[in-house]
Amino acid sequence: MPPPNLQNYVQNPEPPAPSRRRLLVIGGKLLITALTLGLLYNSVYADGATAAAWRKLLSTTLSGSGRGPVLAALALVPVNWGLEAWKWWRLARHLEPVSFRRCFRAVLVGLTLGFVTPNRVGDYAGRIIELKSRRLDALGAVFLGRYCQLVATVVAGTGGLLYFLLTFYLKGYPSAGLGLVVATLLINAGVILPLYRSRLLLTALTVVRPLRRFRRFLAVMPTYPARALHWILALSMLRYAVFCLQFGLLLWAYGASPPVGPGLAAIAGTFLLKSLVPSLNALADVGVRELSATHLFGLLHEPALPVLSASLSLWVINIALPSAAGLLFVLRLKVFRKKDLAPKTPQP
């Protein structure tokens, strides 16, 4: 005769994992806050050139000299990141139902996390954490959005650098100039092709052994229809135009007045050179962009100080200030969902 089922009154102890997780999350948030505030302080106050540009930005705004262009550039900051949030909303809703508000919050959180991480990889984490499911596929969605922005940067930037090479370096060498034009077209085609033929990209990742591990993260890319890719690319180009307009307004505010066409070419070339150089964090981008800007605008006989001030101010209003605003969302971030923190019930 089998023994009767006895009620077990012994309480199973709660697993300590959730408490440790909460402590790790709180510690991570505090660490991100400290690093962000430290980098902001170092970039705005400790560095002399950045501090001077920021003081001049405030003084010109308050004194009335250049107030209009500066205020217009500041007004375009929410437009800039609103377009990025719109782009992420169109990408994320392909994975799960999501509101534009959550996407905007995810973009600001990603901006703050990316501020303190190499090559801004924290941008991936900030957006993925805000999703409730399919976080692995979200890696591919974030990559797709950033790749579209890179396409806009490369297409415009290669055109800008082509102008400077043909005008200042290859003048009198028509054969070399023609070869450079053909090379530019091939580069642009090579950048655009993986966007609309992402299966080719996945095949290439399969062939190259060290890159095979990334294939599963990008497997979601072919599921986006061409119409969605058109939208994402259009939003990326529109956001790129906002960046260029902000740079032009700040140049105007600081007294630089290059011709419109060559000035746009210099701006596009500056953004491309900055994008091609890996960085340790957002602060490291500053030196690359300023070096590129002063060189290209120097070829247009523009003094270095207004160009340097405009470039630094562009970084402050578009990266530093929104990163500080994103801290408010980072501190309230739910890294682990309730279902992740709930103790697992033992299977019978």
UniProtKB/TrEMBL annotation:
Keyword Transmembrane among UniProt keywords: yes
Membrane topology per record: Multi-pass membrane protein
Q: What is its main location?
A: membrane
- Cited Pfam families: LPG_synthase_TM
Q: Where in the cell is it found?
A: Cell membrane
- The superkingdom listed in its UniProt entry is Bacteria
Cellular component, GO, one term:
plasma membrane
Q: Where are the transmembrane segments?
A: 23-44, 141-166, 178-196, 228-252, 304-331
Which keywords annotate this record?
Cell membrane, Membrane, Transmembrane, Transmembrane helix
For the keyword DNA repair, the answer is no
Which ranges of the sequence are coiled-coil?
none
Name this protein carries in UniProt: Uncharacterized membrane protein YbhN (UPF0104 family)
